[in-house]
Each structure stands twice: as structure tokens, then as C-alpha cells.
Amino acid sequence: MFYLSIFFQYAAQYLKTRMTYRGDLVVEIFSDLLFQAVNLIFILVVFGHTALLAGWSREEIIFIYGFFLVPYAIFSAFFNIWDFNDRYIVKGEMDRVLTRPIHSLFQIIIERMELESLFGVITGLAIMFYAGSQLGLELSWYDPFVFILMVIGGAFIYAGIFICLASISFWSDSKTDIMPMMYNIGNYGRYPVDIYNNVIRFVLTWILPFAFVGVYPAAFFLGRTEWYTYAFLTPVMGVVFLSIAYFLWNAGVKRYRGAGN
Amino acid sequence: MNVIEVNKLRKEFKSYSSRSGLKGAFRDLFTRNYKVLRAVDDISLQIKEGEMVGYIGENGAGKSTTIKMLTGILTPTAGEVRVNGMDPHREREKFVRTIGVVFGQRSQLWWDIAVQESFRLLKKVYKVSDEDYNTHMKEVIETLEIEPLLDKPVRKLSLGQRMRCELAAALIHNPPLLFLDEPTIGLDVLVKMKIRAFLKEINKKYKTTILLTTHDLADIEALCDRVVLLDEGKIIYDGRLDELQKNWVEGKQVHFEFQELVEVSSLEELSKDFDVKWRPGERKNQWVATVEGDDDAVSRLMSQVMLKHAISDVKINQVSTEEIIRNIYEEGIIHG
Ligand SMILES: Nc1ncnc2c1ncn2[C@@H]1O[C@H](COP(=O)(O)OP(=O)(O)O)[C@@H](O)[C@H]1O
Ligand SMILES: [Mg+2]
């Protein structure tokens, strides 16, 4: 597979470059860890006042957070397109991308990867195992496979949403604050959707389906059978959103007008 | 065989303007005011294998826009393009394997990594075999004298060094067709000459077809037999460079340097029997006369002028290409 081999070529080059600035790498991983710790403390503080949140216990919420970290880590490692408008449209870097014989979206993914974000997978797994053992969860033989499927689905949803947003730049290159806003909305998916009102729940399920990156798939592992339908929709939603994003992107590239000097 | 085949190619850019005030912003939501700028206006062009064509025109004439359509970066608004037998935009990924592109103002190379690492990645991207790479690139690297630069990161290179590396990078897959948009911009004469010599060599050796835009007409004079002149998106001349020189002005330029201040009216008065145009020269009291006609006319004009005004220096020149092109732009159409 040509694309796979190119991916490894770029990844190898990336690691080589990163290793020359090892200090930066450590600082970055450390600040990620700190950020995740702050999020955990926030959950603990909220549960300092109540034992249950809409029927979910503290350990369950921590488990959901742990799960969320895994697809999010994969998304952050490979889909750094939050600055696509500035970097590729306004500065015209897209010109260069379009003169190379690889799909333009794939090129941007491999050019902008930040593999150190994958460290979040380990943190997420650790948190899940901790919360899982507190809850006395059993691990079945099929759980790892379902987990991988759910993680891929979740990462696809994140990727799909952000690729759609980046594609908008092909139609309008005016500056918007939509990207940082979307990162905030993404965080809502880590909490059980039944704590929100119906409108927000609907949006988080069908419009900006971040609930599929956290609470829904995690509900499967928590044995919350009432959410199983949603849990198993996760990979489907992932494929649907990534496909929409892919078509939108291709349509956008046809409209690319370059940076007019 | 035509490598480039362009028929009535057009590119328009819509630029939106927003209305003022809250009411205006609200109306903008529904209908937006826009202007259409036709950057490339129905051009037709054929380029054969092995040709080196100079694509020239003033800033904003539409050169880069044309090149971006020919390389598959931009979708044309109307018209047909076939390059290397393919539709550049529609078959982009397959098509770009058959071309090389250099944009003078933009880097193709990775900023932070050593030049040879960039080359190595591009070699994979273009699926170049070790064997082809070794024989072909070794030569390119030697001719462009970039061997000592290979282990430096691009950001540490000077513009001239970077440009030579860019050129090498565009040739990794030894493409039969090369697009160069202002490859010599900002370079010193020595580097320019190196690049020209190199382009000549690959054109001779591999019959590489080259389309290049430049601000420096010396590039064109050194490299291209054929020029295409663009003005406001339209082709106003397409033909041999020497024809352009021959047809446009037969006459000569005479540079007069007078000893005292001279009014243009007095010069025009005493040369009213000649087909001549006067313009101020670069130095003080210097005037340049562009005379049409034979040598006799030139010598008669000179004696007329010298009878009337004291001269400190006089020079006769062939009209330069630059001058010709300036005239074409000032007067519009070609005569002759
Ligand atoms: N992306 C763009 N959006 C709007 N106008 C553009 C864009 N690119 C080029 N133009 C306009 O098209 C015209 C031709 O530009 P260009 O092809 O870059 O000229 P040249 O390369 O000959 O200097 C100019 O008027 C320029 O402002
Ligand atoms: Mg240009």
C-alpha cells in the first residue's frame, strides 16, 4: 500500500526531527498530563457535593473521561487542522500540496501529525482500568475488539467534524472563532448526556455527535444496557461523518482559489 | 505532439464586498455584492515537446493564475486544458507525477529538515527507484552545485541556495514538463546564470519542455526562442523573440548627453521631420531618441541635434527587448 508506506516515511521523519528537540517533547507530554489531571480534579470536586449525577456515579464519570481520552488522543495526533485556514488557505500552502501526487487531505494529515499526543491513549487506558476496578467491571474476550471499534468510531467523528469545519475555508477564508469553540463543545461529550436538556442532547447526538466520543461508547463497557443502541451506533456515525467530511473536502478543493499574492 | 493544449481558457475571481452598517450586514446574508475579475481571459495556446517558452507580462497580468490552472491547482472557470494528454484538475494525482513545479515565492521543501531528507521524502512520494534517483539526481546535484548544502535545514539557506535546491526538488522524478513561476526573483546575477545554464542543459539532454515566467527579460533572452506576452489576462503576442525585436522597432536608440539643460520641446521642434520619440534618460541632461528608419535617418538626426546643442556624449544602441515590451504595454497592440 503506497499510502501506508508514505505514512511511515513521514512518521519516521517526524520522530527523527522531534528527537533532536527532546526537551520540547517532554514539556509537551507533561503539559498534556497536567491538563488531564485538572480535568480529573474537576470531576472529583463536582462529586464532593453529590454522590450521583443523573444516576451516574463518580467512578463511572471518571471511566467515561478515561475512554474519551483515547479517541481524542488519536484525533489530536493526526488531525491538526484547526489552523488550516491560516496555514494552507491564507498563506497559500495549499498550492504546494496540490502539486504532489497524494490526496490533499492525506498530505495535510501526515504533514501535521503530532505523534506525542498518542501518549493520551496510555493515560486514558490507565484511568479506565483504575475506574473499572473500582466499579468491579469484568473484561470479556470481545471487549478489546469492541473497544478498538468504538475508539476508531469516536476518532472518526472528531475528525469528520473538524474536517468539515476546515473545508468551509474553501468557501470563505474570513477569520472565525469556530474552531476553538468546537474544541469546547467537544468536551461536553465526556459527560452523560442525560444531565443536559433535550436540545443540547439532540445536538450532541445527531448534529455535532460528540456524545459518541465519550458517554455512548463508554456506556457499553459500563454495562448500561439502556444505551447499547447508541453505543453500537458509534462506528456507524464515525463512518458517516468522515464520509461527509471527505466529500465536502473534495468539493472544496475544486473551489480553492489560492492566495491572491 | 503538443504537450500543452489550451483552448479559450478563462479564470474569474469573484470578490465580495460587504455593505456597511447593521442593515448592510443583514442584507449581505441574503445577497452579497461582488465584482468579477477576469484574471485569465479566453487564452489559447499550444506548446510542443522540448520548447522553452517565456511567459511574460506585468504584475497582475494573470501569469501565475494561468500556471496554476495548467498545473491542476486551480479549476478553470471555462475553456479546455490538456497537459501531457490529461486534464490537470480532474486527474490531478496522476497528472502531477508528469510535471515539475517551482514557485519562486514559495518553498516546496520542508523548512526544518535537511535538504537531503526533503529529497528522500519526495523520492518516496514520486515513487522514484534508487537506480533512477542515483543516476539522475547525482547529475542535478552536481550541476546545481548543491552538494555542500544537502545536510543543512532549508531555513538556514540563503535565497539563492534555497532556489537551487527547490529546482533540484522539482526534478526528482525527472518530469518531461517543467513550470517555473518567477524562479529567479531576488537572486543575484551569478545564481541566475547558474540556473539558466542548468535549464538549458536539461532541455537539451532530456527534451524537457519548460514554461517560465519572469520579470527579468535577460532570463528570456538567454533561454527562450518563443515568448508569450500577456496583458490583462489576454495574449497580445505569441511568437519568436527575434521576430518581436525585428518587427516592433527597426530603428535605433540614440542617447544624447547635453552640456546644458535642454527642453523637450526644442528637441521635438528640430526633429519634426523624423519619426522619432524622445524620453528623458537616466542621467541629468540626458535624452534618449528612439528613431525609426534606416541608418541614414539616424545620422541625419544626430547632425541636426548636434548643430543646435552642445553635446558631451552620444551613444547609439539597438533597442532592447525591455524597451520593446515597455512600448507594447504603453501603446497596446503590436504593429508590424
Ligand atoms: N485568489 C485570488 N483571489 C482574487 N483575485 C486573485 C487571486 N489570485 C489572483 N488574483 C488576481 O488575478 C489577477 C492576476 O493575478 P496573477 O495571475 O497572480 O498575476 P501575475 O502572476 O501575472 O502577476 C490579479 O489582478 C490578481 O489580483
Ligand atoms: Mg505571479
Q: Biggest protein-protein interface?
A: A-B, 26 and 29 residues
Number of structural units classed as domains of chain B:
2
Sheet bearing the most strands of chain A, described? 2 strands, antiparallel
| Largest beta sheet: strand ordering of chain B | 5-6-7-3-8-9
Kindly name the structural category of chain A: mainly alpha
CATH homologous superfamily descriptor of the largest domain in chain B: P-loop containing nucleotide triphosphate hydrolases
Principal-axes geometry of chain B comes out as globular
Strand content of chain B: 25-35%
Pfam families (chain A): ABC2_membrane_6
Organism (chain A): Evansella vedderi
InterPro entries (chain A): ABC-2_transporter-like
Transmembrane segments (chain A): 25-49, 61-82, 115-133, 145-171, 199-221, 227-249
Any overview of this molecule?
The complex is a heterodimer of chains A (261) and B (336). Chain A has one domain (2-255). Chain A has 12 helices and 2 strands. Chain A has helices at 2-20, 22-47, 58-78, 84-90, 93-98, 104-111, 119-135, 143-171, 178-187, 198-207, 215-221, 228-255; strands at residues 52-53, 56-57. In chain A, helix 11 (215-221) packs antiparallel against helix 12 (228-255). The longest helix of chain A has 29 residues, at 143-171. The two termini of chain A are 38 Å apart. The model of chain B has no long low-confidence stretch (mean pLDDT 89). Chain B has 336 residues and is an alpha/beta fold. Helices cover 37% and strands 29% of the residues of chain B. Chain B has 2 domains: 2-245, 3-Layer(aba) Sandwich (Rossmann fold); 250-318, Alpha-Beta Plaits. Chain A binds chain B through residues 2, 5-6, 9-10, 13, 16-17, 92-96, 98-103, 254-258, 260-261, and chain B through 13, 64-65, 68, 71-75, 89, 92-94, 96-97, 99, 101, 103, 106-108, 112-113, 117, 121, 124-127. The structure holds adenosine-5'-diphosphate and magnesium ion. Magnesium ion binds next to helix 2 of chain B. Chain A: InterPro entries: ABC-2_transporter-like. Chain A: The chain crosses the membrane at residues 25-49, 61-82, 115-133, 145-171, 199-221, 227-249.
